[in-house]
Amino acid sequence: MDEENALQARVLGTSTVNSADALLLGVLNDVTANRISSGQIASSYQQALATDQKITAGVAGLALLTAVGVVVGPEIYAYCSANAASCANLVTEALDCVATVACTATAGGVLSAGAATKIAVELEQASAKSPVLVLPKSGKTSVYVSLSADGTQQYVGITDNLAARAAAHLKLKGIEIQPLDGLTGISRSDARAVEQVLIEYYELGKDGGTLINKINSIASINPVYAASLQRGKALLRSINYPGF
């Protein structure tokens, strides 16, 4: 398991890949990337285990939703990890169980696709009313934008070197760029997710939008496309970006 998968496991609550080895690998990669010191390995690992246990408890019922093909985004995972009891109750109350047996998946509960979709909508509404802050994964990539003289959004991009990219854009395109506060020094996957959301929000010029960007950051046929859009929107909400 690589660093990205280990970190994604912790953020999204995908407990099926959250083995103790995967969590330890995530901590060791943090040391390698100089995000923590070697003296913090033990405490960071224990914190990762505790976080994983909390997430697992809060989102266990969501496996029933995904089992019937319902997409569960990071906002719902975050909401359920922070509101374990209410999330679990909402899911288990819809299970078709024997009246004398505890209503759990292991007790033979069955959840229809229709019921699962209804629950997902209710959880999404609940998460919108009680938003949980979604933090970007740390890294070396930054999201930047460029505004035209009248304030119109004209370019969205990501880079690992803002100074060099700013100089290149000024020389080649004649535009100035500025980083998005709160979205600098993040993982490349998170940066790409935000970039794609903003590209679709402002739209490419060839599609009638205001951007001079030529291509998308993440193609719609990419397997991570849907999850990336959800993550990107959550990250933009976390910095109070207008429109999100």
Question: What report would you give on this structure?
Answer:
It is a single chain. It is built from ten helices and three strands, in the order H-H-H-H-H-H-H-E-E-H-E-H-H. It has helices spanning 3-12, 20-32, 41-59, 62-67, 74-82, 84-92, 113-129, 162-172, 188-202, 225-238; strands at residues 138-147, 153-159, 178-179. It folds into three domains: 3-58, no CATH class; 60-129, no CATH class; 138-238, no CATH class. A hairpin with a 5-residue loop joins strand 1 and strand 2. The chain is mostly helical and 244 residues long. The longest helix is centred in the first third of the chain and has 19 residues, at 41-59. Helix 5 (74-82) packs across helix 6 (84-92). Strands 2-1-3 form a three-stranded antiparallel beta sheet, sandwiched between helices.
